[in-house]
């Protein structure tokens, strides 16, 4: 994507025509990246607390709060992410919603702390796992669009950790190591996104316009 005119005129030549990037577009990218950063920080802080203090009652309460921050921030990012395929965008949002609803059900119906229930009950982890399907979708999208190493590693790492725990194939020590790697790479990913130029995250708006017109012409 290259500018069609001079720097003074923010007009770009896309695949299906010219387009401009509006302040609203830029704001949506900033919100998307901010959501990712909050989610990454929440995940990293939770991981550090878990490794540092273990599963004491105050830590378990803190982990529940941090998961809520992670989940809400991820939801905000999924509202503002730029994805050409509308059906894929909606799929990721539905996955997030299933995971969020499952989290609420677990919190209000299980006597044990949220994290303990998810760790020990397969059905709870499967439900919560839909939120991580959405997160993996973001990693995949970013890996496909920007070819970054951390997203290439994160894309298989999330399902490996969850499915490995569900199947019992991973030992606790391996799970801890993978969790630490996930937290670090997530922070790297969010940090690098913060410094990325905004137009690249918006993409070719002429493609969005073309796809929208195609939807209108379909019976």
UniProtKB/TrEMBL annotation:
Which InterPro entries does UniProt cross-reference here? DUF2301
Q: Which Pfam families match?
A: DUF2301
| Segments traversing the membrane | 30-52, 64-84, 91-110, 122-141, 153-171, 177-195
State the superkingdom.
Bacteria
**UniProt keywords, alphabetically:** Membrane, Transmembrane, Transmembrane helix
Does the keyword field hold Protein transport? no
* Protein name, UniProt field: DUF2301 domain-containing membrane protein
